[in-house]
Design a protein that fits this description.
- The chain is flat and about 70 Å long.
- By secondary structure, it is mainly α.
- Helix content is 36%, strand content 0%.
């Protein structure tokens, strides 16, 4: 069982750019220690003959061919106007 120090929790918070109060540090230190313990347990599992897995659902992306549809394109030589949505107070 690992026991993280409050200093370690402060260092982790600093790396994560979190500003923690002393109460939060006291609260999160045992929680972080528990997370490290769980990771230690996972490291004990024999995964020597297990293939790496990126996803488990078997789903694949459905892709379409990348084609230009000229009906959906604006001509570059024709300017267009949009209504003003921000009014300037002078």
């Amino acid at each position: 069982m690992s026991t993280l120090s409050k200093k370690t929790t402060e260092d982790i918070a600093k790396l994560a750019k979190l500003k923690l109060t002393s109460d939060e540090i006291s609260k999160f230190t045992p929680q972080l220690s528990a997370v490290v313990d769980l990771i230690d347990q996972l490291n004990e599992v024999n995964t020597k003959n297990i293939e790496p897995t990126a996803q488990t659902t078997g789903l694949t992306n459905i892709l379409r061919k990348d084609e230009i549809n000229e009906m959906n394109c604006l001509p570059q030589d024709e300017p267009f106007e949009v209504p003003q949505i921000i009014k300037k107070n002078l």
